[in-house]
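dude i think i finally got it to work??
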Amino acid sequence: MKRLFTIICLIAFSQIGFAGNPDRQGSAGAGELLINPWARSAGLHTMNTAGISGIEATRLNIAGLASVKSMEIGYSHGRYLVGTGISTNALGLAKKIGKKGVFGLDFMSVNFGDIPVTTVNFPEGNGANFNVAWTNIGLSYAHNFFNEESLGKVSVGLGVRLVMESIPGISATGVAFDAGVQYSNGSKDNFKLGLALRNLGTPMRFRGEGFTVTRPNPNVQNVNLAYDQRSANYELPVVLNIGTSYDVYFADDAVRLTPMINFTSNSFSRDQLGGAVEVSAFKDLVQVRVAYKAEIQKTTEVIKDDVYSGLAFGATANLTINKETKSKVALDYAYMASKVWSGTHNIGVRINL
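look at this
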């Protein structure tokens, strides 16, 4: 376990030297990998690297998947940047295997709606529509390595994600790898520390019939030839997250206050620093959260702040459906303010069996 932890740390910190570079801003692709479709963690601006748990951990720190006690099923829907007509959907399943392992499977899609087909002759549209398909499927595994009161708890997670993007006639496919570590200590696991490296994978390139062009044959008159154009490769948006949090309990553990702080190192944009607070009342029956995130490097007239630099908040209601088996259903909501359009809303449901 120590060797694996060391390898993950070396890979993660090696990324810092390539991160936070405004000169590379906008040069990566597969931006949907940076979208968090899950409502609970979206309300924290996706900064709960140290304490994220359950199926949502597959989009931030896979190590948090190890917290699943038996099985968890989750679904979330988002209205992305209200006014654009874009929406997101996510579906996930996590199942405990053995005493210390948990497998996770999740699916995410981005829906752009019907887009009119425009041509030179019909700039306002020719009456037809086309669809853009952005989807990715992830398979992950998390493991609790040890759980000793004096040393604390350590969990490690690894995952692989198939990334697919397409429009009619053109498509691109890639593979991304994620890794994460979570550590907790204290009488009630109060102190938490998390580190996660995401989207480290193969370059992608668009291919398909859409790149075929017809040109005259230079050797034979009135005969055309079909040529395949080549598109350039693009990299995946590698992200390193480092975060910590601390749980403070009041009123015989009926109320929990959790402040947290998170640093995000982006390989293709500027670094971000943020803080958040989550308050849980009535022994986790109701949870409310608020977060603020900002870019920590200077802005220029050309490169503006990230669209989501700013405020986010959310709430959760946890309802017990079976006291004997401790089965619960959770309803989540989140809102992230944006500098353009009207922000993003997420709603979701999680079932713990």
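Residues 117 and 126 are 6 Å apart (CA to CA).
im so relieved honestly
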